[in-house]
Amino acid sequence: MRIAVIDRERCKVRICGLQCKKCCPMVKTGKETVIVDEDSGKPIIVEDMCSGCGICVKKCPFDAIQIINIVEEVGEPIHQYGVNGFRLYNLPTPKEGVVGIVGANGIGKTTMMKILSGELKPNLGREGADWGEVVDRFRGKEIQNYLEKLSRKDLKAVYKPQHVDKIPVHVKGDVRGILERSDTSGRMMDIVEKLDLSNAFEADMKELSGGELQRVALAACLARDADVYLIDEPSSYLDVRERINMAKVIREIAEKTKKYVFVIEHDLIVLDYLSDYVHVIYGAPGAYGVISNIKGTRVGINEYLSGYLKSENVRFREEIRFDVRPPKEKKEIKEKIDYPELKKHYERFKLDVDCGMIEGPEMLGILGKNAIGKTTFVKMLAGVIEPDNTKLDLNLKVSYKPQYIEAQDALVVSLHPDPELVERFRIRHLMDRNMNDLSGGELQKVAIVDCLSKDADLYLLDEPSAYLDVEERLKMSKHLKKYIEDHRKSILVVDHDIMLIDYLSDQLMIFSGEGGKSGHATKPMDLRSGMNRFLKDMNTTFRRDAETKRPRINKPDSVKDREQRSSGEYYYVE
Ligand code: ADP
Ligand code: ADP
Ligand code: MG
Fold it and tell me: What is the C-alpha to C-alpha distance for residues 385 and 377, in angstroms, rounded to an integer?
């Protein structure tokens, strides 16, 4: 089965003069495969006449066209955004407990949420489909009943949107008032306490940091009495402790209320801990997405990492492996980078960094909560700010990707990125775009490539996983590892995605203290010591998945959790 997808936003007929229509070789055979929509003047590709030669795809100067072969088994779409628009296949299974959803950006997750919430009536890929037909499609499946209720408006759904940064535009006023109005269940104060929001309670919405906004949005959603909770990317802007607390609160409410809870999540450790079941969404971003069968959490995430869905018999990418490395062997140290004790005082914040050494080439991971001085430390290494106690001269070239990336008013290509990295990070199609027009994830990838393209002895990446979807995070981890092997240079990574830090780091630095007041950074230590220290601070123990070796959070007070706590092995290696 062949589908043709045109991104209507990207398609700019007036500039290209309908290259796709002019170049279509089917015209010679007398078939009009590309016709022009009278209203918009934009092309329409007639799918059952398209031979799939791919010439229009190559000729389109704006990368607006995708021609894709998909297997017949996926059936008819459950929803399609117009002719040649994005298609979603299948729907998830509502179950008591938390159903986790994992998949790349642009693969249809939000579309799925909108359908589940009743905001979007599925059209079955054609005009005029009614609710009866939609329900019929799922006859005998667990979602049938759900859809029937939804069609009768007999199901109350609440939604925590993905982009919390946009909330203060519509929702104005103080946090207390907003949360009190949401509190139709009576559990708001309990949630506020568990999400550690008491300090923000008296603040105004427009004063909140990203992490506070995220937690307020979550609290407002979970405090409502509803039948379905739809939670879109709750861990953005949150640090590790906040992510774990968030996961605990969601689990607790799912268990207590026995309502349906769906959560979209890109942090695989959090997804694993949160979910009772998992649906994988695979396909081609921007073109189509297929919701997989429902899977147990462990199996679902393992299949996701393996890139192969067993019961569907579908391979959607190559495997990503997590090897547990043996305790670091004495490797060749090529470039020792020594730095002295560093101090930095601001009016309300004070940071102390123990002196330390980076045993290059290596990956140094940095973990710590929000507002504790990680960025301040990285900026001192980068020479952006000066420490108070000493003049820091590392005598080496440093390349730095800041946490907050400022887009320049220039084309991406003007950065002269390394061609190999451009291929690896798949940003070639962005080369002719202005940096101001890029999405958060696109800009992040461009900034990472730009940083690594420079000739330096030390690379500093401050929160590279922000705005990246799960696929992009996994691929980035692979690329960074390869980069160190190939270039024999050191990379320092600050991040809140522990799976990424666990997978990448040779050594770890742990920041502790009180957010916004004071911070202390240890010297770099081996992964096991660092993780033990960090996880003890988080009051959480980890085990390893037998199959993939990926780290998993132990259930609090489970046998493993208690055993590991008493032996002090918070970070289980073998
Ligand atoms: P995700 O949440 O996984 O990032 P979305 O469900 O938001 O994905 O979007 C999937 C695809 O559908 C994207 O290519 C997006 O551009 C397209 N899309 C989303 N909403 C609309 C709409 N209202 N009209 C046309 N296309 C849309
Ligand atoms: P992290 O990266 O761990 O989230 P930062 O290093 O960005 O933390 O910030 C640590 C603390 O220092 C925060 O409370 C922040 O508000 C404060 N801070 C950072 N830069 C400045 C500055 N230039 N002036 C005053 N305070 C600052
Ligand atoms: Mg920071």
Answer: 9
C-beta 462 within 6 A of ligand 2: no
Ligand 1 touching residue 107 (CB < 6 A): yes
Q: Look up tokens 């305790």; give the residue.
A: 327
Let me know: does 339 contact 328? Beta carbons within 8 Å: no
| pLDDT, tens digit (0-9, with 9 covering 90-100), for 51-82 | 999 999 999 988 899 999 998 888 999 999 99
Neighbours of ion ligand 3 (CB under 5 A): 374-375, 403
**pLDDT, position 131:** 94
CB of 43 within 8 A of CB of 57?
no
* Ligand 2 pocket check for 366: Cβ under 6 Å: no
User: Which residue has tokens 């999400």?
Assistant: 195
Cα–Cα distance between 66 and 332 in angstroms, integer? 47
- CA dist., res. 374 & res. 332, Å (int): 28
99 CA to middle of ligand 3, Å? 31
> What's the angle, vertex CA 225, arms to CA 223 and CA 229, rounded to 5?
80
- The answer to whether residue 301 scores a pLDDT higher than 80 is yes
Q: Is the Cβ atom of 344 under 6 angstroms away from ligand 1? A: no
Q: Ligand 2, atom 21: nearest CA belongs to which residue?
A: 346
pLDDT per position as a tens digit, 115-154: 999 999 999 999 889 999 999 999 999 999 999 999 999 9
Sign of the alpha-carbon dihedral angle for 521, 478, 468, 404: positive
- The 10 Å Cβ neighbour count of residue 480 is 21
Q: Which of 127, 144, 31, 140 is nearest to 91 (CA)?
A: 144
User: Mapping DSSP to helix (H, G, I), strand (E, B) and coil, where does residue 116 land?
Assistant: helix
pTM of the model: 0.94
Distance, CA of 161 to CA of 149 (rounded, Å): 23
Please report where in the chains the tokens 């990574």 appear, as a residue.
493
For the Cβ of 105 lying below 6 angstroms from any atom of ligand 1, the answer is: yes
User: How many alpha carbons lie under 13 Å from residue 560 in its C-beta half-sphere?
Assistant: 13
Q: Which domains does the chain have, with CATH numbers?
A: 2-69 (3.30.70.20), 80-315 (3.40.50.300), 335-538 (3.40.50.300)
Please tell me the distance from the alpha carbon of residue 66 to that of residue 156, in angstroms, as a whole number: 37
d(CA 439, CA 427): 12
In 3D space, the residue among 505, 460, 454, 459 whose CA is nearest the CA of residue 481 turns out to be 505
CA–CA separation, 300 and 307 (whole Å):
11
Give the nearest ligand 2 atom to 348 CA. 26
Tokens of 221: 């959603």
